[in-house]
Specification:
Length: 451
């Protein structure tokens, strides 16, 4: 059990983090993916200095085309506008897992460059490792002039709620010149200068990695790269802290650990895929043992973006939502006594055929952690991740915080007993058979670690 002295050590670590002062009027929370789409497009149209669009992928569909066409049109109107797009190199070379396509996103980027031959908008592919399964570019936060538009969402129809279905995430607009410059400078210094990073919309682009050696050196350099800024905010005022990291021992992972361990009263944690690193599981158990309240909001297996309905062709990737549910059921079964007392609250999110991609944490009423980090072993060890930590000691953001959490909880149901979750024997035949085969050769754990 954590002693009061140990608790103070974790809280002291947070207080010593360099912080940027933030005015309340310049931080705005959005509550729906359609609002995110509208605000992103409006910001692009109004931009006067720079646009850095950062995502795992920018897809060739209606939503992605609207964004990219708008960027080209704005660049034609304001040629001096600095525009740069960064996506994962590997993801740009293929379609969605399980979906075949003749042309990939990188082919589309080239076609768009040809369509606008006199307008240069570089689209860079960032290879965080030599293979996608060993690490991806999972950085978040688009910078438009002095505003950071932060969300875990990527750019396509479902994330931007372009059609009927949507994928739910978090969305913050933070206007802060130093924050925007800090995140832009990191991109310029550590990403755009790397020989492993390639321009994907160049007609001479390579379909394979230019050099595996360059990629390995790039990954090694990223482990030591961080956001550089002068933090001059006091610990009694509203402030933001940008964090970035790659690898198990990154400052980002360290801060996540200290955040959970510093809880005085309650923690709310969201993740789309319940597969927490062992350290975070231990942190949560310690909180419960100290009579702290923990609320976990996770997507129902049918709200997972890898879920395949029974009436559609099945493939191995469709086992993932079930593997995550098995993890969750096992976790809850060992902590049922805390569910019974109300200390542990588990909410499952489900809204028709829509999906859940929301992640982050709220610690007491003092800290908010917004991130694209899935809080799983893959993000903990393999992917390049970042986050913005909001320190709100005076509860200036109480109204936005309360409304965001209320919106998130709207389509959730509380699990009262772990037996409410299905067991393997209740899964569809194809899923049940495949999981049992994977378990015999211990492949289920490997899949959970790399996807």
């Amino acid at each position: 059990m954590l002693s009061k002295h140990t608790l103070r050590i974790h809280q002291q670590h947070l207080m010593q983090l360099p912080k940027l002062p933030q005015s309340l009027v310049n931080i705005r929370t959005l509550y729906a993916p359609s609002d995110f789409r509208i605000n992103l497009l409006e910001s692009i149209v109004k931009a006067t200095q720079r646009i850095y669009l950062v995502a795992l992928y920018l897809d060739h569909d209606k939503a992605g085309s609207n964004i990219l066409n708008t960027l080209y049109q704005v660049k034609q109107i304001r040629p001096t506008l600095e525009i740069c797009i960064l996506v994962d190199w590997h993801r740009a070379q293929r379609g969605r897992i399980g979906v075949s396509t003749a042309n990939n996103n990188a082919d589309w980027y080239c076609a768009m460059a040809n369509r606008y031959p006199d307008t240069l908008i570089p689209i860079y592919g960032v290879p965080v490792n030599t293979r996608e399964t060993l690490g991806v570019f999972h950085l978040k936060g688009c910078v438009v002039d002095d505003t950071v538009i932060y969300s875990g969402a990527n750019i396509n129809n479902v994330y931007l709620h372009q059609n009927q279905k949507y994928r739910y995430d978090r969305y913050q607009l933070i206007t802060n010149p130093v924050l925007a410059e800090t995140m832009t400078s990191y991109i310029k210094k550590h990403l755009l200068t790397a020989s492993a990073v390639q321009c994907l919309n160049n007609k001479n682009r390579l379909n394979n990695l230019k050099s595996k050696k360059d990629t390995r050196q790039f990954r090694s350099a990223l482990r030591h790269a961080s956001y550089q800024f002068q933090g001059n905010a006091r610990n009694d005022e509203l402030a933001v802290i940008p964090l970035v990291g790659l690898g198990k021992k990154s400052i980002l992972n360290s801060t996540i650990h200290h955040l959970i361990s510093s809880v005085n009263q309650n923690l709310t944690l969201c993740t789309p895929y319940f597969n927490l690193p062992a350290l975070l599981v231990r942190n949560i158990v310690y909180l419960l043992q100290q009579d702290k309240q923990v609320e976990i909001i996770v997507g129902d297996k049918t709200a997972n973006d890898f879920f395949i309905p029974e009436d559609q062709p099945f493939n191995i990737i469709g086992t993932l939502p079930y593997l995550y549910e098995i993890n969750l059921r096992r976790f809850l079964s060992s902590l049922q006594c805390y569910i019974d007392t109300g200390q542990l609250i588990l909410r499952l999110w489900k809204d028709g055929g829509n999906s859940f991609h929301l992640k982050g944490m709220w610690i007491d009423t003092e800290w908010q952690f917004i991130t694209g980090n899935n809080l799983n072993p893959r993000s903990w060890r393999l992917d390049l991740e970042n986050a913005i930590l909001i320190h709100d000691p005076q509860q200036n953001m109480h109204e936005q915080r309360h409304k965001e959490l209320a919106c998130i909880r709207t389509h959730t149901t509380v699990v009262r007993n772990y037996l409410e979750l299905q067991s393997i024997s209740q899964y569809p035949n194809q899923v049940r058979t495949l999981i049992r085969r994977l378990r015999r050769i211990r492949m289920d754990k490997l899949i959970s670690r790399i996807l």
